[in-house]
Amino acid sequence: MTKNTNTLDRRSFLLRTTAIAGGGALFSLFVKPETASAQFGGAAPVPNAYFRIAADGTVTIVAKDPEVGQGVKTMLPMLIAEELDADWKNVRIEQADFDESKYFGQFAGGSMATPTNWEPMRRVGAAGRQMLVSAAAQTWNVPAAEVTTESGRLYHRKSNRSAGYGELAAKAAALPAPDLKTVKMKDAKDYKIIGHSQRGYDVASIVTGKPSYSIDFTVPNMLYAVYQKCAVFNGKPVSANLDEIKKLPGVKHAFLVEGKVKDVPVLGFEVPLEPGVAIVADSWYQANSARKQLKVQWDEGRGANQSSEEFAKRAAELSTKAGEKTLRKDGDVDAAFKNAAKVIDAAYSYPFISHAPLEPQNCVAHFENGKIEIWSNTQIPAGGRALVANTLGIPESAITIHLQRGGGGFGRRLTNDYMVETAWISKTIGAPVKLLWTREDDMQHDFYRPAGFQYLKAGVDKSGKLIAWKNHFVGFGNGEEFAQASNISPDEFPARLVPNYTVDYSLMPFWFKTGALRAPGSNVYGFVFQSFLDELAHAANMDPVAFRLQLLDQPQTEQTDKGPFTADFKPGRMKEVLKLVAEKSGWGKRTLPKDHAMGVAFHFSHLGYFAEVAEVSVNPQNKVKVHKVWVAADVGSQIINPAAAENIVQGAVVDGLSELMAQEITFDKGRVMQSNFHQHQMLRMAQAPPEIEVIWHITNNPPTGLGEPALPPVLPAVANAIFTLTGKRLRQLPLAKSGFGWA
């Protein structure tokens, strides 16, 4: 993987300690000044606390990254606690506020928490343990090599002496801190916390109904707001019945907001403040009730002529022409097609979909004396701070962001539109305010997973070898620039394994927002390419697993995409998980009920290698039942929290099945036609597979993340099984458009 420039090299860290009241110690990281300017583009960060040890032995560890359901609030402290050799039952966890002067890389996205924190966090814990050992050795006047630790206690076995960490924490704080790059870390065989299932730290509060999420958060004297935007993106309010609204019960303020979005292509995550009408009241019920009586005259602007039907027509027209740009070209596809034994053409498409997290967007803000305090479930607080600063015209130093737990993110909270709306309203009224979107707001004003159309042509030779592949990708963008999260890498599989390979693209102009949804790009590319590979396997009269294994054995050409978040695909690692899932599922060996079939697929994304098999049945009414899914995964040498890891993978499979069958966002006259879950359906519990078996393939590679890479393969695996049962090749998402549904 190309080095992530947002990840601090371990040699940039120093450890500093401070004695705290009551005889404990605070253990902090410090970033070298010369490193800070290069990696952060500014002054050196000050020391930052990652854990502290109280005199009674309680260890409090700070979870620096935003928690949106992926488990990092538990996982990151596990790394520190393991190397510290703390007793997990005596560990307490605190959520950090956003503070780049203290914490590096505070974001949730890209399945990056594990690869970026695996080593730095463990080294912090190991350094703390080393200092405690040194303190004990000095106290007992024995060699440090004779002092051992176990579950929060220090031992000198020869003299039968021991002490709790809390007893020696203050003394440890007075010692010189070790160089983090030289501290000794544990052998994996000695782990007592890492690799052992730990319950999510907030689970007890969540299941007992205690306020745990951003939507639960309040501050004293807080008002409540709703924000009405035009059904067409960036439509501007011309007038509204504000005088009537202000007379309604509980309403304190009602005003128009001009907005800050310029009439230029919208391609980034951070879209400026959109125009709208704000209503502020004593309670959210009063604000939302008043909103129902709001009458607004809108100038809908340039977006009012867009429709999904027109996009599909335009894509079909573009498919008959040469692509506007070439992304990758290896060999000579046209010559290879002439020599191929069989050539297959196929047109695949997939729709816009909404993130639809269960917790709709919300935020609390309090603007006072030129400064603003914000409580948000943002996934990328740095972007939110910059957006608020630019919109309000205040320095970023005047903004404080407190990170709140999010009820799902999936990429939606990478954008901070709801944060900047709340900030603007608070500044306008001069009071603390909570903005809460409705489900309809959330679904109709999302940053949608981009739609796309892919026109594929491929050829195999007489031995079934894939020798040629051509793709005309029709997507969305402006000029040569793809819409946010809609680009495709020139190295996207099966690139580099097909000797004659071409990807061209054409972009359709658009005027609305798109964004990253769980496994961005991969959540559709896996469906398209693994479904098409299945077509080719059948055309070659080859078993689908054998066909894929043969492809993975082909020579690999040069990697050309070397961006900060790209990685070098290793076919050998994928071969192993594919063989493993075939073995565990009994592929080709089990006798299935006559109305059952199995489908297979794999995909590489976010550094994870995943292969999946789905056992499926379809009744005469085209009702589909997924009976079991097998997932084989290679995410490196260590599964940090096994129970949480398995939960994440199983959740990704369920999420992928929702996308497969019924989720779709369509536009007409610039308006989103879906408003709630009845039109953008999630998989119901009764429709979920009764069993999702997760098989880990442990390899000698650094551990990587899990939030995204398990999702893409399940869509084509199920679709390929449906083909085996029905003979219908499904090339369009969602499958409901082809007459299928869940049993």
Number of strands: 30
Whole-number mean pLDDT: 93
Principal-axis shape: globular
* Poorly predicted runs of 5 or more residues: 1-11, 31-48
Query: What's the helical proportion of residues?
Result: 25-40%
Short description:
With 743 residues, the chain is α+β, with helices and mostly antiparallel strands. 27% of the residues lie in helices and 25% in strands.
Brief descriptors of the model:
17 helices, 743 residues, disordered N terminus, alpha+beta, single chain, globular, 6-stranded mixed beta sheet, 7-stranded mixed beta sheet
Please characterize this protein's 3D structure.
By secondary structure, this protein is an alpha+beta fold. The chain is 27% helix and 25% strand. It is built from 17 helices and 30 strands. It has a 7-stranded mixed sheet with strand order 11-12-9-19-16-17-18, with helices on both faces. Strands 14, 15, 20, 21, 22 and 23 form a 6-stranded mixed sheet that branches. The longest helix has 28 residues, at 113-140.
Blueprint (SSEs and pairs):
Elements (H helix, E strand, L loop, with lengths): L12 E8 L3 E8 L1 H8 L7 E6 L5 E5 L8 H13 L6 E5 L17 H28 L6 E4 L2 E4 L4 E4 H9 L29 H5 L15 E6 L7 E5 L1 H5 L4 E7 L18 E6 L2 H8 L4 E4 L8 H12 L5 E6 L2 H7 L2 E9 L11 E7 L2 E6 L4 H12 L6 E5 L13 H13 L3 E4 L2 H6 L7 E9 L5 E13 L2 E2 L17 E9 L13 H18 L4 H9 L18 H15 L10 E10 L2 E11 L4 E12 L7 H20 L5 E2 L2 E2 L18 E6 L17 H13 L14 E2 L1
